[in-house]
Fold each of these.
Amino acid sequence: MSDPDEPGPVRVLLVDDQELVRTGFSMVLDAQPDIEVVGEASDGAQALDRLRTVPADVVLMDVRMPRMDGIEATRRITAGDGPKVIILTTFDLDEYAFAAIKAGAAGFLLKDAGPRQLVEAIRSVHSGDAVVAPSTTRRLLDRFAVHLPDTEARASGALESLTAREGEVLRLVARGLSNAEIAERLYVSEATVKTHMGRILMKLGLRDRVQAVVFAYETGLVKSGQTGDVG
């Protein structure tokens, strides 16, 4: 008999129009003791239907699908108190992945990622940790920063609510540094960095670390091409 106080496995819904891809992911995930594939869908519309009857914690979402693509499906899922969405994207980091992150995805993963990366991504997002591979997110934003609106003027009001240290943490987050790297850079504990990050999200009305990175680029706090190697 299972312990009712012990957390159950992470429930995952697989959404991809290629059955072979879904089968491959399902085989990898079902082999994990703490992850359970609770359903599959071949497009965004079917994914929304599945989520009405099947509880899921994390959705692995392809972007290019018939009927309803992953962007619109992600937008609808994240509009409520739905599961976290991880976008599956191609190696060239296309603009669809960027649009999906803007729509509310918690992170993204390359379609050719290995089994270990796939499992770690799901566990990371489910536990509420930072975006999967922040340096990859930064490269994606670098590539499409040209499409971002010039909102530096709008940024000044929102950024004024942050302390100098919080602004510094946000800048480093946007440049792709992990909490541990930020802690080392600022000579503080990792717990302190997490506290700062929580306050940043609250003050700016952001949902997660991904939104914080997008905000930093949109508002001009970080420019395309900047890296974590700053003084």
Amino acid sequence: MKLTFLGTGGVQSAPLFGCDCHACERARLEPRRARAATSALIDTGSERILLDAGRHDLHQRFRSGELSRILLTHFHMDHVAGLFSLRWGLGQPIPVWAPPDEKGCDDLFKHPGLLDFRSALTPFVPHSFGALQVTPLPLQHSKLTYGYLFDWQGTRLAWLCDTCGLPPDTADFLHGQPLDQLVVDCNDPPRESVRNHNDVTRALQIIEQLAPRQAWLVHLSHEMDGWLLNNRLPDNVLAATDGQTITVGSSLSVTV
């Protein structure tokens, strides 16, 4: 199974409009340093699953029939904005799974177009998409939000974004799941108090608790990128970049 980061930024990722900090100026000069809205593509060979849909170019990036299904973590605009153009395309309906948030986002439920919204998956209960098992995990955010545990032939990857810490039930569930890869929200450099997203201190605490073989930081702000210019992360923790691919179930775990 391969997971490609289509985006790794938060709503204030580099380059941020009007900001001339080092991280933002670097992202303008070197486009590979820029961060799109956090999302990913999961490819198992028989399945191509879009994980969140905040990128505005989805209707241009993918051709009709290329996506097997879409999984959404929640209905904030930076995670669903690309659906507003994609829904008016032509072709077969695309199944969409999301948390049971009755409000959704704007008029997506009223006018779904080719988006086929399905009944929400049950938290902590695995669901099979071909050979891939997917388990929804409740997170702590300002809107009803799920993370996901992906089990590919016994090798596990957890995606925990957007969140501020972990609910006790989710933390307890993951403690019993040996993780090969962990993708975790890390929006900010160290903060005294946080609300909707982890700062790096809390993200590293989650990583220490869950003890994955490899961890990846996503939903990074331009301030977090600035912090990374002058600070080191633990050896098994990396800040993900747009376009990077994780290969699950292989000793060669990363391609660019």
Amino acid sequence: MGYILNIETATKNCSVALAKEGKTIFFKEIAEEGYSHAERLHVFIEQIIKDAGITLNDLSAIAVSQGPGSYTGLRIGVSAAKGLCYALDIPLIAVDTLQVLASQVTISDGLIIPMIDARRMEVYSAIFSPNFEKKREVLAEIITENSFDDLEDTLYFVGDSTEKCKLVLTKGNCVFLEDIKYPSAQEMSPLSYAKFKINDTVDVAYFEPYYLKDFLVTAPKKQ
């Protein structure tokens, strides 16, 4: 078994991890207000490959966070991953961004609700069990005081939307883990390795990030 390079750029966190047999051995990441993924991603990749004392030819696969998330961030990460896969002739693995975010939570009971900010009161969210089994598919939803009313379990919210959502989600079963803001390539390592072992890969030519919503370009207003 060789190495898997994991790339996570779906949010403000530009994150790269090198893993062997599902365990992260080197990683670099930075979360900034201004997206610097285009400048930093390839530098991070080169640095951890150098730190590991290997070459790109030692990689067995590339894994990329598939979304949902930032349109620009996802495009940068997926483009880089595809380019490496083409050049090295190795498989591409797509990993659910919200599952990566949820994987940072350790609980014995209740439900994990990872959320990624989609502006205003809208978020991208999913629901996971304590062992990270997906209990509800990904949705783009507007959070109100009645959101998740049908769930009686203790709800653990993580992601970059917790600050705004805790203002309206005030019921006693809502717990906000505010230290966990962004998905990280470190948590991708076991997920991508599990997919690698069963040959769960995507077509390098046709794979597209999971934007969830259409990306709209608006024309500038006439002066």
